[in-house]
Structures are given as structure tokens and as C-alpha cells.
Write the C-alpha cells for this entry.
Amino acid sequence: MEAVAWIAVCKFHCKLEGGFVRDWVIGHYREPQQRTNNPKSWIQYRTTPKGQRIPYMNRDIVPADLDCHLPLDRYFDIDKFLDELYKFDLTCEVIREDWRYVLLIDENAPTGPFTMDLIEPHVALTHDRIDLDVSNLSLEKDYPHEIGMRIDITQSPYSIELETIVQNIQ
């Protein structure tokens, strides 16, 4: 999972957000016992109105997924991204929706599968609802020692500082 996050952020200029930043990067949460019990059972599916089966991970698995926003300032080539994954012997199934790619990675690996959302930049611009301890935290290329915030929450109506969020997580 860390390798895929690194590829997305460092090689493809994606912004990594959400629970992975909270659970893995800041909170250092790991549930190794969960990662040994029937990994295929971790995958669940929902069916879209168009009939697509979209995979997602059981929420008891921590971390369960990667949420990335595609870059605004450059073209994202999903085939080149998949080529990078294959260099690490990672398998991947891609499901395309109008507003994102959903990747099911390492479905049959003994270490277990995980999912990744690669969200189109135009959707990211309209996504202004935040969960202060999860979806507002982000990592970006060229900022290796800093946690970012997608929305400035130091001003009203939010008035909470990044340090407070980190303390709440830890």
C-alpha cells in the first residue's frame, strides 16, 4: 500500500487524502491480525445504477484504501500508472466511473487486497465537505515533511488548527 501511495504522489503528482493519512501516516495504526484472516473476505461490492460492481474494503481493515485526487496541472495516464504498479509485481483491476477510477489492487496476494480511488480534478474542486480529522488532511509531492489541509480550517466557521487535528488522532 505504501508503494502505491508513493507512486501516486511522487511519480504522478496526485494528492493523497483521507483515512490513510490519518491512520497510517499520523496515527501509525496497524491491525496486523486482521491482515491474516481470509483476505478475499475483505472485499465487498456495491452495484451502481449503471450495473457496475464497485469494490470497497471492509471498514474493519485499517488502513483499507487510498484516496487520491488527480493533478490539475498535468495529464494523468492510467496505463502508465498501471505500468508502474506492475514493476512492483502488483496486480490491479480498474473500474472506470464518470468521476473516478476505482482500483482493486493485489486481490489475490497473501498480504491482502486494498482499493484506491483516483478522483478526477474537476470533482476535487467541488468537494468542499470535510471531516476535520480525515478528508481534510493531505500529502503532496515536494512537501515530504508537511501535512497539508485541503480547506483552510483556521478561519470561521471551522476555527481548528492542524496541530489540534493531529493531537486528536494520536
Notes: The helical segments are 2-11, 19-26, 78-87, 121-126, 162-169. The longest helix spans residues 2-11. The radius of gyration is 16 Å. The mean pLDDT is 83.
